[in-house]
Amino acid sequence: MMQQPGRLIGLGVGPGDPELITLKALRLLRESPVVAYFVAKGKKGNAFGIIEGHLQQAQTLLPLVYPVTTEVLPAPLSYEQVISDFYDSASQELALHLDAGRDVAVICEGDPFFYGSYMYLHDRLAERYQAEVVPGVCSMLGGASVLGAPLVYRNQSLSVLSGVLPHDELKRRLADADAAVVMKLGRNFPKVRQVLEELGLAQRALYVERATMANQKIVPLDDVEPMSSPYFSLIIVPGERWQG
User: Fold this and answer.
1) Do 180 and 127 fall into the same domain?
2) Are residues 13 and 122 both part of a single domain?
3) What DSSP element (H or E) covers 25?
4) What is the pLDDT of residues 35-83, one digit of tens each?
5) What is the pLDDT of residue 197?
6) What is the rounded radius of gyration, in angstroms, for the C-alpha atoms of the chain?
7) Are strands 158-162 and 179-183 parallel, antiparallel or unpaired?
8) Which of 49, 116, 151, 203 fits as disulfide partner to 112, beta carbons 3.0 to 4.6 Å?
9) What b/e string do you get for 147-170 counting C-beta neighbours within 10 Å, with b at 16 or more?
């Protein structure tokens, strides 16, 4: 009799506050014999920190260690190729457990399908195994809540933009937006701030680092050090207030 394959489970565990994990995610986390998590070299990882207190002793932990993060690679190495190869090998590692009939829960900070690394495993494995994805509170919603900033009013539309966009493209999209969230800041922060200033949006924009985490930081845009904006930061440009 053939072994029934395990399930691939993508678990969104929220933006950082451990109490923002959903009941469903917590249940599936505790039921999964294998718990996989993405982590940088030498780090424990924010996602793992959220769920660490809920783990059972019998569970197998499977760290998926990024070979690179934000560093610049020497030629001829390509970040895209290195990270693609990493997702290939991580998928193969998960497949060994799935083929052995073990469910694998892959935890993901925020939401698995919103800039989440889990999605790259899902793309490689979901056609071969039963997959279930549990949504989580994403960083932009955590950011809006701690900033006390409603994102959109009435019939307004929200644009979610990457700070990686070229200057002119970012400027065009922000100019067309009723309200916006700019993610993936890091080294892109000076460019993003310049665009906001050129559009006259800098005074309306709100900045937060590590929203809902214990080391959360909210500062005026002008006070952010140009080269110190961390990866876990975002800028929110709320929609114009509407008096309903």
Assistant:
1) no
2) yes
3) helix 23-31
4) 999 998 888 889 999 999 999 999 999 999 998 766 565 666 677 888 9
5) 96
6) 20
7) parallel
8) 116
9) bebebbeeeeebeebebebeeeeb
Distance (Å, whole) CA 218 – CA 51: 25
Q: What DSSP assignment string belongs to 88-103? A: HHHHHHHHHHHHTT--
3-state secondary structure of 79: helix
* Mean pLDDT on 129-157: 96
How many degrees, rounded to 5, is the angle at CA 38 between CA 41 and CA 110? 130
- CA nearest 66: which of 45, 51, 94, 48? 45
- Which residues make beta-bridge pairs with 133? 10
Work out the widest C-alpha separation in the chain, in whole angstroms: 67
**Domain with 105 in it:** 8-137
Place of tokens 């002119």: 168
Residues 189 and 215 grouped into a single domain: yes
Instruction: Give the pTM.
Output: 0.90
Same domain, 72 and 12: yes
